[in-house]
Design goal:
The complex is a heterodimer. By secondary structure, chain A is of the alpha+beta class. Chain A is built from seven helices and five strands; from the N terminus they run ααααααβββββα. Chain B has a domain of 90 residues: Serine Threonine Protein Phosphatase 5, Tetratricopeptide repeat, CATH 1.25.40.10. The longest helix of chain B has 37 residues. By secondary structure, chain B is mostly helical. Chain B is elongated. The chains are: A alpha+beta, B mainly alpha.
Chain lengths: 225, 265
């Protein structure tokens, strides 16, 4: 059994739940809407506003009517593509193997990785009515480009999930999510450990096979065979 | 004679009605599940599909497997996803055979087993399921779960390519180009590269560009080479970006303008 599986089920389940926290979320923040897209460095409050805005947009995607689930999923994936720095997360997740990968391998990997992550996030679409994301605290990091946005996902049943978003000001001045910490566990670090275990055992191609197999599954259908 | 016929009819008709009613009900239940699923009401979808799945309906079994795989309406449980997919796969449902094979390759919810994956892929491929045919070709080409066999890889790629699957078309192009699994035939390579390129597959667009620039299997045409390299580069393919710049360095302004004109069409 691949080691990746255990963490997947345990940790990613939560990760995805978080991505969907955006779903139910009525983020009650009294901050301005969008981050200043031209600022070199974010001002206090920008990162919180960015997370709040993501939630707001997720709600509008989720509550759209007249579209089937697949179309809503696709819109949600697009939203996440814009908000997450998938290239950075993908690169980080490959760890030291990024350096030894050829340009073609990196290209292939990033394509698959994005699909893998987006599919996983979007898969929770539609099932989380009544959940609410509340931003608790924003803390700047000493590197001067990142912020932690601490939040709680309050659910109709069960205790709230504590999630911290690491948000970075990108080169284009916009903000991107570069990590999520669920109950103190970094998703990016977890993912990197899982990937490293697979690469150690089965090589880079083994990791690609796993990612491909995960993203290749056929969805729910009405087809007769 | 007449009485016997009447007796037969009076015996058959109630069964026929019962059968039609039951199959109509089953159809309605499946649709109820489908509508609920599209609305994001996974609990209702599950309660519509579960009795059908338990009664042996492969399509419902497959869908429930997916709901466990994604954690929709239930807690995510890849082991249970496998259980449901296996039931549907045993009934010959190709999509379930394919998902089961993917889980066996990734080791998702089940111990990784390339050999078993090949078995399920073969069953789905024999039913003409293109994605499975492509993946089976890859298993043969990489020697996973079966001894490496390029002619078998070619065989399955060709089946999938004929059904329009771009990755299979691209792989077929490479095999013809290199004479792997088939006689080397650069014209056929160009044919398959073109098929996939026309469907927007960047790697194939890049390969087609090179064939045009080198006049391999097709008349040399720098303008067309630049057109295809640009299409691939626009999709973010690094090697196409580099190759495009290399082409531009060799071309006259009028040729570049001609390529731009074709791209603008």
């Amino acid at each position: 059994m691949l080691q990746i599986k255990h963490m997947d089920i345990q940790v990613f389940r939560r990760f995805f739940a978080i991505a969907l926290l955006c779903a139910g979320l009525g983020v009650g923040l009294g901050v301005g809407l969008a981050a200043n897209s031209h600022a070199a460095f974010a001002k206090p409050g920008d990162a919180s506003a960015f997370i709040a805005d993501l939630g707001k947009q997720a709600v509008s995607v989720l509550q759209s009517t007249g579209k089937d689930l697949e179309a809503r999923e696709s819109a949600f994936r697009q939203l996440l593509t814009d908000k997450f720095d998938l290239k950075l997360i993908g690169r980080f997740s490959l760890g030291r193997y990024w350096r030894t990968a050829s340009a073609a391998q990196r290209n292939d990997y990033l394509g698959l990785f994005s699909e893998y992550v987006l599919q996983a996030y979007a898969s929770r679409l539609g099932g989380y009515a009544g959940e609410k994301l509340v931003v608790v605290l924003e803390t700047p990091l000493s590197n001067k480009k990142d912020f932690y946005v601490k939040s709680e996902i309050r659910r109709p049943s069960g205790p709230p999930i504590k999630a911290t978003w690491r948000v970075r000001t990108a080169k284009d001045g916009g903000m991107r999510i570069i990590d999520i910490m669920v109950e103190g566990i970094s998703m990016a670090v977890t993912q990197r450990d899982q990937f490293a275990a697979v690469v150690r055992r089965d090589g880079f191609n083994g990791l690609m096979a796993v990612l491909r197999a995960r993203t290749d599954k056929m969805p729910v259908t009405t087809a007769a065979k | 004679m007449k009485r016997r016929r009447v007796a037969l009819i009076s015996f058959v008709i109630p069964f026929l009605i019962l059968f039609l009613t039951l199959s109509g009900t089953a159809h309605a239940d499946f649709q109820t599940g489908w509508t609920a699923y599209q609305e994001g009401n996974f609990t209702r979808a599950l309660s519509a599909w579960r009795p059908m799945a338990e009664a042996g309906d492969a399509r419902s079994q497959f869908n429930i497997g997916n709901m466990y795989d994604r954690g929709r309406g239930v807690a995510a449980d890849r082991g249970l996803a496998i259980t449901w997919w296996r039931k549907a796969a045993d009934r010959g449902y190709a999509r379930a055979q394919y998902n089961l094979a993917n889980s066996l390759i990734a080791g998702d919810g089940v111990t990784r087993d390339y050999g078993a994956a090949v078995k399920w892929l073969t069953l789905a491929s024999q039913q003409g399921f293109a994605r499975s045919q492509y993946k089976l070709g890859k298993m043969y080409s990489n020697g996973l779960g079966v001894p490496r066999d390029q002619s078998m890889a070619f065989h399955w790629f060709e089946k999938a390519a004929d059904q329009g699957m771009v990755r299979a078309q691209y792989n077929l192009g490479k095999m013809y180009r290199d004479g792997i699994g088939a006689e080397m035939d650069i014209k056929k390579a160009v044919k398959w590269y073109r098929e996939a390129a026309l469907q927007g597959y960047a790697k194939s667009q890049s390969s087609l560009s090179i064939r045009y620039a080198n006049g391999e299997g097709v008349a040399r045409d720098m303008v067309e080479a630049l057109v295809w390299a640009t299409r691939a580069a626009d999709q973010g393919l690094e090697r196409a970006k580099k190759y495009r710049l290399k082409l531009i360095g060799k071309m006259k302004p009028a040729q570049i303008a001609a390529a731009e004109k074709r791209l603008a069409r």
